[in-house]
Amino acid sequence: MGAAAPLAEAGGPALNVARPDAERAELLAWVKDTLRAEYGERPLSPRRDPLHELISTILSQRTNWRDEDAAYQELRGLGDWDAIIAAPTEAVAHAIRRSNYPESKAPRIQETLRLIRDAPGGYNLDFLQELPIKDALKWLTDLPGVGVKTASLVLLFNYARPVFPVDTHVHRITTRLGAIPKMGEQAAHRALLKVLPPDPPFLYEIHVNLLRHGQQVCSWTAPRCGVCVLRERCDAFRVHDGKVPSWKA
Ligand code: SF4
């Protein structure tokens, strides 16, 4: 199916809210194929070890990737995980100062590491590979500073579990496209998982290519719709007659 679905509220500013799930699923499959043609195939393989992924994702909250990486490198400069737990919290906050909100992230990171160290597997998180997904998500989101996005990211990227991390880029673009009705980021995890296939390579590729599309084309304040390969099926482009406004979450 190539044509866009009719708008639920013809003539109004709201994006499509009445699209059937099968149509949302088909739209997302088209998005994945279209972004692959634009940005290439993205095979699923862990980019860093699970604990690195977990801590880096906490640091990435409201922080760009350069500052996230700088904060992580300086944090590791304090020593091994035991040394980071034992360090004064002010020293941890100073080490991660390039990440936003270092004073609140530092104690959460130390407590998260302490809980992981004291768990049966210690710093090895590989038990997450075998746990039922619901339990794995719960175990991770019970850690301080770990939300469903961070937990999903570790489970998908490191353990190829069929979950879907929804970051700000994924949330914004899938909403503008009309793949989901407008809702909060937390609810978007459930709504998107419901219409995406339980196929980790598919989930990984559409996640990373949406991230890239959000960084390069479909930005918060000035989406570059004129060069966007998704515009022919984008609700926001159609509703706003090509002049898509800044994103308001
Ligand atoms: S057409 Fe515009 S609003 Fe729609 S996905 Fe592309 S850049 Fe974003």
From TrEMBL:
Requisite cofactors: [4Fe-4S] cluster
SUPFAM superfamilies for the chain: DNA-glycosylase (SSF48150)
One GO BP annotation of this record: base-excision repair
Coiled coil: none
Gene Ontology terms for molecular function: 4 iron, 4 sulfur cluster binding; catalytic activity, acting on DNA; endonuclease activity; hydrolase activity; metal ion binding
Residues in HhH-GPD domain copies: 59-216
InterPro entries: DNA_glycosylase (IPR011257), Endonuclease3_FeS-loop_motif (IPR003651), HhH-GPD_domain (IPR003265), HhH_base_excis_C (IPR023170)
Entry keyword set: Endonuclease, Hydrolase, Iron, Iron-sulfur, Metal-binding, Nuclease
Superkingdom of the source species: Bacteria
Protein name: Endonuclease III
Species per Swiss-Prot/TrEMBL record: Deinococcus koreensis
